[in-house]
Amino acid sequence: MKSVYADNRTEYYTDICVVGAGHAGCEAALACSRLGFETVIFTVSVESIALMPCNPNIGGTSKGHLVREIDALGGEMGKNIDKTFIQSRMLNASKGPAVHSLRAQADKSEYSRSMRKILENQDNLYIRQGEVCEILTEEGQDGKRKITGVKTLNGTIYHCRSVILATGTYLSARCLCGEAITYTGPNGLQAATHLSASLAKIGVKLRRFKTGTPARMDARSLDFSRMEEQKGDVPIIPFSYSTDPDSIQKEQVSCWLTYTNEKTHEIIRANLDRSPIYAGVIEGTGPRYCPSIEDKVVKFAEKDRHQIFIEPEGLYTNEMYLSGMSSSLPEDVQIQMYRTLPGLENCHMVRNAYAIEYDCLCPGQLSLSLELRDISGLFCAGQFNGSSGYEEAAAQGLMAGINASRKLNGKEPIILDRSQAYIGVLIDDLVTKENNEPYRMMTSRAEYRLILRQDNADLRLREIGYNAGLVSKEEYEKTIKKKSQIESEINRLSNISLGGKATVQEFMDRHGSAQLKTAFTLAELMCRPELDYDSLAELDPDRPDLPRDVIEQVEIEIKYQGYIDRQNSQIEDFKKNEKKKIPSDMDYDDVESLRIEARQKLKAFRPENIGQASRISGVSPSDIAVLLVYLKNLSYHMQAHDE
């Protein structure tokens, strides 16, 4: 990294600066450096790289999809959790494949250490501990501001061509526990107290959000015999497509399940006036889908108990995480309520629960590439964009890193749409919707979730990752081979017919399946719920020896073919509107018959296509119809003018 000494300070010259080294920052910095750009990643503490300040796990419902997609595109999160997990489970295994989601309990210290090691040994990547206090810009030739660098609190300037903001929950953060307020980031780490003012100065609009974390308990003080044991799955399924499944089969630790009760709820209700949430002290909006325990008790008053999972924080610590019981109540109230739970009657609290408030981006300022529309070269990712969760952050960090790099290369950004990936759904929602609380990914948000399964992320996205430059040729060729094997086996099964021979009818009787009155192909038989690929083996003596992941895809594609075909048809209709582009300089005041609210929203969000416009809150189908007519007439007049 080139440096000069001028005006009693050091100035450095680099390509890209990443502000923040959480899950978003790590993926962004790795992507940029692996794509050949000299990158500096800033953190308030080197010890906090890839920190898990809240839940010590990766994946979960819909989040497991994101991790698989990150991996398919060439990101690091899946590989890192495969190296550092202590328990793994497939959630929703009893339901359909669209909602199966892998979740791994991490050794949080090892996860952070392992990711830090990856960053430290990555070519083109420099780690810098220090607080960025100012974003430096200048006016470009097009009249729009553009990035020129960043300045740290000690006065050092880093000249660069692009900046990625991944500040997490550190920006002007404060932690609240009852009446006690500390102006720190998570886990007592230094907050970033100066950057918000600089962002406001260059026209970036900010708002306050809130999240929280539960207490940590000393395992020696807990009575696990009073709880329900939660064991990991056997065999263990890896997150990363690059991980050899045999290499991660190991002994797993247990998690535990207990419940709140009416006594717990009485203590909470009696002390609501001491909660910053209900006393009006907290300014920020909290996550609807991950509420504090006091929120649960108030909003779900009809429930007489709530599930609380007791999870180990790692192999080399006695700290246990109380998943589902975050709180901002005072410490004396916390210990009272925790001790009402079965197994926690004599618990010793190592760290108290707290709420944390922080600055993040107001909606309507981002483009789908995650670049701010009004500042060229300034990309944003993670909780700064108004999302919650490690996985959502990492997904955005990866895409911001890819697109910042592509911009410097003069290439078009990679935009994943809602039919391609959960990442596409996530970013589209953050860009087009006025999310009034921290955004959490859920399977219900994905319209095409039967297509966007976690088991086929490599088949959907490996080629994009390869073309982007983050997936090796070897990994890509493995995916091509897998795809070929799947197609070949489906074709083979669809062309083998079985008649009503005695051996076939006896097989049907034995498996509780209706006898054959006409010839059926093996593929048609597999569609019967009581039959599957493995059970049909005895009727299929010539079948090839295929990997388990290929067999899984063959079975899903055959069993759900009708539903998959229907979703593919819906996707074709969806794509039509995505292809209808809206000029970036569109003057919505010229569009007659647009309702006032729609006009205001379209001006604020400036959608890139009709599909995106249709998903903006306040823009109705009739507004879209008006817009389509206007664009058609505009195109006609432009063609006539050219002629």
Question: Could you explain the architecture of this structure?
Answer:
This protein has 643 residues and is α+β, with helices and mostly antiparallel strands. Among the domains are: 216-355, Elongation Factor Tu (Ef-tu), domain 3 (Beta Barrel), CATH 2.40.30; 473-566, Arc Repressor Mutant, subunit A (Orthogonal Bundle), CATH 1.10.10; 580-642, DNA polymerase, domain 1, CATH 1.10.150. The strands form six sheets. Strands 1, 2, 9, 10, 11 and 23 form a six-stranded mixed sheet that branches. It has a six-stranded antiparallel sheet with strand order 17-18-19-20-16-21, with no helix packed on it. Strands 8-4-3-12-24 form a five-stranded parallel sheet, covered by helices on one side. A hairpin with a 2-residue loop joins strand 13 (174-177) and strand 14. The longest helix has 22 residues, at 621-642. The chain starts with a strand and ends with a helix.
Question: In a few lines, what is going on in this structure?
Answer:
Among the domains are: 216-355, Beta Barrel (Elongation Factor Tu (Ef-tu), domain 3), CATH 2.40.30.260; 473-566, Orthogonal Bundle (Arc Repressor Mutant, subunit A); 580-642, DNA polymerase, domain 1 (Orthogonal Bundle), CATH 1.10.150.
Task: Sum up the structure in keywords.
Elongation Factor Tu (Ef-tu), domain 3; alpha+beta; six-stranded mixed beta sheet; Arc Repressor Mutant, subunit A; DNA polymerase, domain 1; 26 strands
